[in-house]
Amino acid sequence: MRGVGANQTTHQPGMFGAHVRWQIDLPVPDGVDPDGSSPQAAAVREVADTAWDAAQGGAGPRGPVHLNLPHREPLSGPLPGWLPASRLASLAPGPDPARSLSEERSDGSKGRAPQRPAGTGPRILDRGPRTIVVAGADAGPSAEQLAHDGDWPLVAEIVSGARFGRHLVHGHRALPARPGAGRTRPAGGRVRASHPVARGHRAAGAARRRGDRRRRAGRAVEPERGNRARGIRRRRRRRRRPRLAGEWMRASRAAAVDLTPPAPDADGLASAVPRERLSAISAEVDILRTPLSRELLVDAVWRATWPHDRLMFGSSRLVRVADGILPGKKVPVHANRGLAGIDGTVSTAIGIAAALRDDGGVGVTRVLLGDLALLHDVGALLLPEPERDLRIQIIVGNDGGGTIFDGLEVAATTDAAAMARVMYTPQQVDIAGLAAAYGWEHERVATRAGLDQALTAGGLRIIEVPLPR
Ligand SMILES: Cc1ncc(C[n+]2csc(CCOP(=O)(O)OP(=O)(O)O)c2C)c(N)n1
Ligand SMILES: [Mg+2]
């Protein structure tokens, strides 16, 4: 994932500067021998010895060392390609702690040269027929324009600001990411590493590198040939294959999710027959009392938000749910991307609300986030007087900790108690009390009806929605 601007990645070699005694950036392991060992095993042993020596001080003071160990997926459980589990246990300090490490230390890093992100400037695209426009965070409306102009399917993350228009592919997270499904065009922004389309894009790249012609995703670079030859090849390709856009749009229609509550039974409600009326009323009440799920929560917030409003997502589970099911709508969406930190979410939303107000906007800024993301930025609730007229709703899906990790592969390979302690990190903070302490309105809503009502209110407001883990 290096050098491609992948979200939640950073340039790690050397990041601790002079604070470590020694560092190394190892290559990605390449395969495992039939006996379970790997060609890297001996090198790893040597690295472990060297690192241990350096940490112990070698010739100087003791201190930390930095080992940057890339892996291939899966990223948890036994590590394929490095060492068989039996040999991992024997990775104890080596027998020669006095070995001098001055060479490694003075040269600082044995790692590979830093990789630059791939070209990020504007690019001119040829109009291949098998093209998909992928809009990552902050790609903006120009990504939709590109899809529109090229008549290409548009896969737009919820935080792209480009999730609208008739080329939008619904439910794109659920669509198969077949490498053969098309040539993807990153149209700006950063696409999450976990995103199915990013995976498909990567798989396609790997297949291309392996020269596996059958799995080729398309021609990223068309060989230079005469226009005429190219035109002929294009026409042939078009005739051979159904239009890609059509395939994607059909899949999109099938994947669209409609969470609209059923229309009220008007006849039943107006019926003169008491039994019919009662049953219609009871059906209505059931709908109103339906406990909120994550899907209903993101749907209600999306419906309540209009182009004059602003919507900010925290890097919690809800943004993924939203990305999975929400239909197109031209509303301004924001998120802190980069390393997808859960810190600073409320602060960013306050900045957005202040900018909206200062520009004369009348809309509401909504921030939809998880409980830990809110708790990470609780200090942001302290607003000085000039900012207390902002219109902000903090909508917190409270599931008592970080549940996003329950869906990651690490959950399947980790002891439940350890998982709860270091990943879920349970919390029972009294959010109503917090709101009161900082002078914010607070409401706890557990039903769709209650939420719809709460979302219409202005001022500084925390709307707390209890959610099951
Ligand atoms: C500053 C920072 N620390 C840690 C993380 C790792 N992290 C990602 S999501 C998450 C938990 C989020 O919990 P919550 O906001 O309650 O959302 P949930 O997953 O429960 O919906 C953490 C700790 C991070 N992204 N940023
Ligand atoms: Mg949570």
Describe the model:
There is one protein chain. By secondary structure, this protein is of the alpha/beta class. It folds into 4 domains: 17-107, no CATH class; 131-255, no CATH class; 259-289, no CATH class; 294-466, 3-Layer(aba) Sandwich (Rossmann fold), CATH 3.40.50.970. It has 17 helices and 11 strands. Strands 7-6-8-9-11-10 form a 6-stranded parallel sheet, with helices on both faces. The protein has a 3-stranded parallel sheet with strand order 4-3-5, covered by helices on one side. Strands 1-2 form a two-stranded parallel ribbon. The longest helix is centred in the first third of the chain and has 16 residues, at 41-56. Residues 83-121, 178-183 and 211-242 have low confidence and may be disordered. The structure holds thiamine diphosphate and magnesium ion (MG). Magnesium ion binds next to helix 13.
